[in-house]
Amino acid sequence: MKKALDVLYVILAVIGGLWLSAQVILWVILPWQPVQDFLQKEISQAAGRPVQIHHISARLTGLDLHRVAVASSAEQTQQGELFRAGHVLLRWSLWQLLQGKILVYAVIVNGLDVHVVRYADGTFNFDGLFGTGENPAEPAAAEETQPFSLNLSVRQIRLTDGHILFTDEQKNQSAEIDGLFF
Hints:
By secondary structure, this protein is an alpha/beta fold. Helices cover 31% and strands 40% of the residues.
């Protein structure tokens, strides 16, 4: 019995060592700047406005995005940000990742600040976000050329420390909700 426990402990130690080694490789050795640039470019194109990610890091179970910001408008970035998140964690399935697919099943957002503005002309600062749906055939063609498979089957969205500010320039009023958690 003691020999079986010793073998089990050795197996667990080897698995733990491999897990730790993989984490170190992900954190230290792999160059994350090209991945960050790629994500910023792709998300900016999809959103139709500038997106900034200050820093990213990865784990075997997910991707950490630090200080993510989406501009209010593609034309006038000086109008501020539509939203900013202090930290976004995208959790993926390790089993699917080992099969060459990316399955994001959870999005955890901490420190989300949203600023919605209705301008004097009646438009909003989120108008045109993620396109207008005029070219439905375009995403299918882009999907065929991608070298990897991305499946956003999000089953869980968690928000901590959220804040929403609504500014109505037509009526010169604003409203605010603070401390959002769900």
